[in-house]
Amino acid sequence: MEANEQVGPEGVSSKPVVCFLGPISSYTHQATMQAFPADRFDLMPVATIKDIFDTTQSGAANYGVVPFENSTNGSVVFTLDHFADRSNSYGDLNVCREVYLDVHHCLVGHIAPALPSPQPPVIETSSAPALNPTTIAADLRETEEASGSGQQTPTAQQPHPKAARSRPSHPISHVRRVYSHPQAFGQCTAFLGSWLRGIETIDVSSTSRAAELALADPSGESAAISSAVAAELLGLDVLARNIEDREDNTTRFFVLRKGVEGDAPMPLKTDTETETETELDDSRLLSSTKSLLSFTVPHRSPGALADVLSCFRRGGLNLTSINSRPSLTGAGPFEYVFFVEFEGHRFQDPRGRVARVLEDVAAVARTSRWLGSFPTSRGN
Amino acid sequence: MEANEQVGPEGVSSKPVVCFLGPISSYTHQATMQAFPADRFDLMPVATIKDIFDTTQSGAANYGVVPFENSTNGSVVFTLDHFADRSNSYGDLNVCREVYLDVHHCLVGHIAPALPSPQPPVIETSSAPALNPTTIAADLRETEEASGSGQQTPTAQQPHPKAARSRPSHPISHVRRVYSHPQAFGQCTAFLGSWLRGIETIDVSSTSRAAELALADPSGESAAISSAVAAELLGLDVLARNIEDREDNTTRFFVLRKGVEGDAPMPLKTDTETETETELDDSRLLSSTKSLLSFTVPHRSPGALADVLSCFRRGGLNLTSINSRPSLTGAGPFEYVFFVEFEGHRFQDPRGRVARVLEDVAAVARTSRWLGSFPTSRGN
After folding, report:
1. Nearest-CA distance from B209 to chain A in Å?
2. From the CA of A104, how many Å to the nearest CA of chain B?
3. What is the pLDDT of residue A13?
4. Helices (H), chain B
5. What is the spatial distance between Cα B196 and Cα B138, in angstroms, rounded to a whole number?
6. Which CATH architecture has domain B16-103+248-259?
7. Residues A217-259: pLDDT tens digits?
8. Measured in whole angstroms, how far is the alpha carbon of residue B14 from the centre of its chain?
9. Domain boundaries in chain B?
10. Which residue of B has its CA nearest to A342?
């Protein structure tokens, strides 16, 4: 069966199904559209990262798209926790592609409503700053300090205090609460600390869901951090644009599939032109592909971590990332499952270097599991 | 000046000051009391992890206690982000001790209030389960499914679905929202998924603060995940005990200080008896101490990570943990600052192995920084 053509349950030929972390207009949706043209794939939103793993493992979708890490805020631990596969539910899944998406967050909500009399209605246009934003921020800060600290969630803290990159394009003093995904809060600490300090922040499952909740609040006091796309779709006002801490805010996504299907070249667009194996010299092939591996090491044998990592060095394969999560499978606390990415492809490996290193790791680690090989989409 | 005696601002001799992540009765407070006997130290609550770093760096406190990692939920990224010290504010701080605390979470709030007539008042005792908890859970689940998914935050997901370890000791169907710290939510996923599925979860800065917010809600519909100590202190009811996913739920804390003070032996209790240097052979000394180091590697030179890690192997020092966070200091995204812990002490190092490895790392890494050496409190 071709990857871009399949027979549906009713025997009708249909497009391959790609599930993604919804709802519609989420950042994962945007990354999915970038990788899977809508004319050739059926895109299916699901509610949670777990649903993506479940739906792809069950075969109900051919591919699943999950966020893996953000350049500002670090790893997506919920995705790592599913790759850890502690209940052994996702044995057939592997990563076949990475996708990068530039992420620009907006504060979205309702432009301050006309106040009921006796106050005169506030008339505003997008070009006329009716209130001095600095004054607003100072007011908010005073309010927060007067009410005592400790109410803020750590996501509203600034681990590296600096000025916000952008200012609100509309007054935001009527905003009393902000909904968003924890990762988005973590990427907008400077804006939140400068302009919305002390305001309640409420974690929800996605930035799109956050926008829906802001829309649903008739008081207009709720705002959300989401994409401009989500605001547009819902008819919400954009109160501030590009509120992310860093201009180069990028999220990296992984595409999951079930089985390796002989690892035929993916029928997908790639950011960089892929060349055939024979045209590439070995080192170029290595540096144009990456693999993901998880492993655990024997308990009470901390030297084993170094032993495993030295396998990559001995095999001449560069490590490009390393992560760890609690393993939660051993007898005691503070055992970890490690995740490494390294240059090289399990199947496009003419000199057998990747295969040898995977064997070496398996001999030293307590457990190890190849989680996928894929073309590199951007230079490291 | 002795570490356990100092001259205060008014020239009055006073005890050394230890700041911790407050408020009173937080888990960090409990860990602090465990390490710093109240008769010999002044314990000072501060509001945020940043405040602990600031207060210790400024000298306003002699020691600061920060949570570093939890055995169920992984690293405390806000602490890592401060160790990354991206604004170069904490150059004098180092870790001089680790403290382990067994963490038992409770659901605390108000026992279901007597309902207004016409309903008869519900009379309950702690031993009489007035409602079948399974029915409550099933009801909640139906409500949640009917209202559509996607509203849950990822912290409420179960990356490793399993039965909750404990049941509520009182009916909890009146609970409409739960306050807690994100880390605590992450440690109670099974209980939340089984008993409070679809209920709004609100992140706040500490579990103690969460308990205060539950107390402040006159409707009784707010609950909190916090310690039994916090509930007791505030006069809240404990609705369920030991709701953490794992019995061995443990948080590891670091004690910060400013400068090395000649690295005199700490005037503190330790979990294990420390012996003098001369009585310990070299390998025993190595395995009874640990050091923390951060480093970055040259951009676009992924092999450098393996180069740095091989320094530890070559020097015979076991790695005991590794973490990474976005560096946010380089020119582009997806550069990392790495944190490793390894066996060995910078100053209790008769054969000079630690010093040599630190030199080797400095030669290979782009930047590297020793962040402390301390006695190991528990076996790994």
Report:
1. 7
2. 14
3. 52
4. 27-35, 49-57, 77-84, 133-146, 182-187, 189-195, 207-216, 228-234, 282-287, 303-314, 353-364
5. 10
6. 3-Layer(aba) Sandwich (3.40)
7. 989 999 999 999 899 989 999 999 999 998 888 999 999 999 8
8. 29
9. 16-103+248-259, 106-240, 282-374
10. B302
The top-level CATH class assigned to B106-240 is alpha beta
List Cα–Cα distances, A236 to A60, A80, A104, A225, in angstroms: 34, 33, 16, 12
For the stretch A154-213, pLDDT in tens is: 333 333 446 788 999 999 999 999 999 888 998 899 999 999 998 888 887 778 889 999
CB contact under 8 A, B152 and A205: yes
- Work out the number of other CB atoms within 10 angstroms of the CB of residue A260: 15
Q: What is the DSSP letter of B261?
A: G
Q: Do domains A15-103+248-259 and A106-240 have the same CATH topology?
A: yes
Query: Rounded distance, CA A77 to CA A70, Å?
Result: 11
pLDDT value for A118: 38
Read off φ and ψ for residue B336, nearest 5 degrees: -120, 150
Residue entry with tokens 């812990």? B341
Domain B282-374 has CATH 3.30.70.260: yes
Task: Say which residues have a Cβ less than 8 Å from residue B163's Cβ, sequence separation at least 6.
Answer: B190, B194
Distance CA B374, CA B65 (A): 14
Nearest to B334 among A201, A318, A380 (CB): A380
Burial A310-332 (b: 16+ CB within 10 A, else e): bbbbebbbbbbbbbbbbbbbbee
Q: Is the dihedral of CA A217, A218, A220, A221 positive or negative?
A: negative
* Number of residues that make up chain B: 380
Question: Between A158, A160, A319, which is nearest B305 by CB?
Answer: A319
CATH architecture under which domain A15-103+248-259 falls: 3-Layer(aba) Sandwich (3.40)
Q: In B330-376, which ranges are continuous DSSP H helix?
A: 353-364
**Domain A279-380, classified CATH 3.30.70.260, yes or no:** yes
Give the Cα separation of B244 and B252 in Å (integer): 16
